[in-house]
């Protein structure tokens, strides 16, 4: 059972409309790489040119902010759930 | 903070304002509610809540806080009511189009609950006035519509030690949390820096489901009332994510970041230039950065030239669904995100006039063409909205 990624609508458009994606990897960074390869248009919205997360897109691994658990180096296991939350500003 | 009021001594309770018989009648459903009651209702009457923005989020928040009997509502807004606001900004009505939002909101609040005192600030919320405006309020509610004002609102709340009840919306999705309490994280703990300008479209550009700010704004109102009363568990250290299409509510943890420059290290000791922080160029920078080859043209001028038969490639860079609402006869559609891949359809020897809805996307498209060696590029000022005003009043505006 791979890792599940939950995408907000604004990013799902760049992943052929999929709001959830599944991918394998040992770390979150590996999972993001798999997804970035699968959907090249989505890639620059998930990570910067150095392969690191942006300060305005927060990744949650099982509802906890990954910045406090090693960032993209955080270990993931089958069945983990990753939620991607971009900053939005509308009001 | 209010929680100290409700947990406080009998003396503090005695200092709370009394309710008139009219008010007791009006608030009867609160008065019989455990956790509110007479003391709670008097606490609400004593409450002072500042709403930044009287738009999509501010509308339901203000209406419910007023109805609930929060004694003083501060409103900050400098906009006027536009007919396109009414799809979601339910505090304003059709009769209010053209009026300052502050005045319209004040009238509506007075109708909902004449016992509420409104302090109106008809001004942009800026680094120069934020601390002065916010200092006498208990709670700040972030109903703003741009990143610069969100960071300003957050830093103001952190510096003054007041909770920041946050809500934000885009298309079909919303977020809410409570930031800047003594023990909890702040907005900068969640998003250290804003996205570069232009990456995240505004609601004016990207659209928003009208009912969405209703959902998020009422969550903000709920959290505000709970904070005032000191009851329940607030969204402190939690971010609520609302997806109206999937109709899913999810809560993720927001941790207080010890390296946060606002609430962690506290290196932010005063309000900064938030436009600069958000990468928004000043007018001078923008003028300097505009590629020399792009010339602005007004719809009237362009129409006159088209009428006399000038050979101009008129290009609409909006989306298909916008084209379907209204477009200029003789134009062709090349949505902004396809311009770079459609360069082969443009002719360098011809003049190219680009329009969008209001003039923002056309500027970006013009820049793409100029970068690729096109020299005869015209940007239609004010887009199709101004075209409708100046040239063809039969076009629907949206």
Notes on the structure:
With 91 residues, chain A is of the alpha+beta class. Chain A has one domain (3-86): Ubiquitin-like (UB roll). In chain A, 21% of the residues lie in helices and 23% in strands. Chain A has helices at 9-12, 28-38, 43-46, and strands at 3-6, 20-23, 57-61, 64-65, 81-86. Chain A has a 5-stranded mixed sheet with strand order 2-1-5-3-4, with helices on one face. In chain A, strand 3 and strand 4 (64-65) form a beta hairpin. Chain A is globular, with a radius of gyration of 12 Å. The relative contact order of chain A is 0.25. With 398 residues, chain B is α/β, with parallel strands linked by helices. Chain B has 2 domains: 47-283, 3-Layer(aba) Sandwich (Rossmann fold); 290-390, Oxidized Rhodanese, domain 1. In chain B, 37% of the residues lie in helices and 16% in strands. Chain B is built from 18 helices and 13 strands. Chain B has helices spanning 2-7, 10-15, 21-26, 28-31, 37-46, 58-68, 101-112, 130-134, 147-160, 187-190, 203-206, 212-229, 274-277, 283-289, 299-307, 320-325, 360-371, 383-390, and strands spanning 48-52, 72-76, 117-121, 139-142, 164-170, 173-179, 238-243, 248-253, 294-297, 312-316, 332-333, 351-355, 377-380. In chain B, the strands form 2 sheets. Chain B has an 8-stranded mixed sheet, with helices on both faces. In chain B, strands 9-13-12-10-11 form a 5-stranded parallel sheet. The longest helix of chain B is centred in the middle third of the chain and has 18 residues, at 212-229. Chain B is elongated and about 85 Å long. The interface between A and B is medium-sized, with 24 and 44 residues.
Sum up the structure in keywords.
heterodimer, A: 91 residues, alpha+beta, Ubiquitin-like (UB roll), five-stranded mixed beta sheet, 3 helices, 21% helix, globular, B: 398 residues, alpha/beta, Rossmann fold, Oxidized Rhodanese, domain 1, 2 domains, eight-stranded mixed beta sheet, five-stranded parallel beta sheet, 18 helices, 13 strands
């Amino acid at each position: 059972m791979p890792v599940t990624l939950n995408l907000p609508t604004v990013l799902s458009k760049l992943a052929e409309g999929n709001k959830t994606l599944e991918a394998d990897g040992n770390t979150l960074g590996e999972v993001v790489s798999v997804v970035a390869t699968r959907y090249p248009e989505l890639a620059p919205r998930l990570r910067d040119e150095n392969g690191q997360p942006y300060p305005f897109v927060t990744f949650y691994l099982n509802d906890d902010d990954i910045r406090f658990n090693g960032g993209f180096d955080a270990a993931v296991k089958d069945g983990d759930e990753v939620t991607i939350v971009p900053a939005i500003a509308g009001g | 903070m209010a929680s100290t009021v409700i947990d406080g001594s009998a003396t503090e309770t005695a200092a709370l304002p009394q309710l008139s018989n009219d008010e007791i009648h009006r608030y009867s459903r609160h008065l019989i509610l455990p956790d509110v009651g007479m003391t709670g209702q008097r606490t609400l009457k004593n409450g002072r809540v500042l709403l930044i923005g009287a738009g999509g989020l501010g509308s339901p928040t203000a209406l419910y806080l007023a109805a609930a009997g929060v004694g003083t509502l501060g409103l900050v807004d400098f906009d006027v009511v536009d007919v396109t606001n009414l799809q979601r900004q339910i505090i304003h009505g059709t009769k209010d189009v053209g009026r300052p939002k502050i005045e319209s909101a004040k009238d509506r609040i007075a109708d909902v609950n004449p016992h509420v005192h409104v302090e109106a600030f008809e001004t942009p919320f800026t680094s120069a006035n934020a601390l002065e405006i916010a200092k006498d309020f208990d709670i700040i509610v972030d109903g703003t519509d741009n990143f610069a004002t969100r960071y300003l609102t957050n830093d103001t709340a952190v510096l003054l030690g007041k909770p920041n009840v946050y809500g934000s919306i885009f298309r079909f999705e919303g977020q809410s949390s409570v930031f800047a309490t003594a023990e909890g994280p702040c907005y900068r703990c969640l998003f250290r820096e804003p996205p570069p300008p232009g990456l995240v479209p505004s609601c004016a550009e990207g659209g928003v489901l009208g009912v969405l700010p209703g959902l998020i704004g009422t969550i903000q109102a709920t959290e505000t009332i709970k904070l005032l009363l000191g009851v329940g568990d607030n969204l402190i250290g939690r971010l609520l994510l609302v997806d109206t299409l999937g109709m899913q509510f999810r809560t993720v943890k927001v941790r207080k970041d010890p390296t946060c420059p606002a609430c962690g290290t506290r290196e932010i000791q005063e309000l900064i230039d938030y436009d600069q922080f958000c990468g928004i160029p000043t007018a001078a920078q923008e003028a300097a950065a505009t590629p020399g080859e792009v010339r602005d043209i007004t719809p009237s001028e362009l129409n006159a030239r088209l009428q006399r038969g000038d050979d101009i490639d008129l290009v609409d860079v909006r989306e298909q669904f916008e084209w379907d609402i209204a477009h200029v006869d003789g134009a062709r559609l090349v949505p902004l995100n396809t311009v770079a891949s459609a360069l082969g359809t443009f002719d360098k020897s011809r003049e190219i006039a680009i329009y969008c809805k209001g003039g923002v996307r056309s500027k970006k498209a013009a820049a793409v063409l100029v970068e690729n060696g096109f020299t005869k590029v015209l940007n239609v000022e004010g887009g199709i909205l101004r075209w409708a005003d100046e040239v063809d009043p039969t076009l629907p505006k949206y």
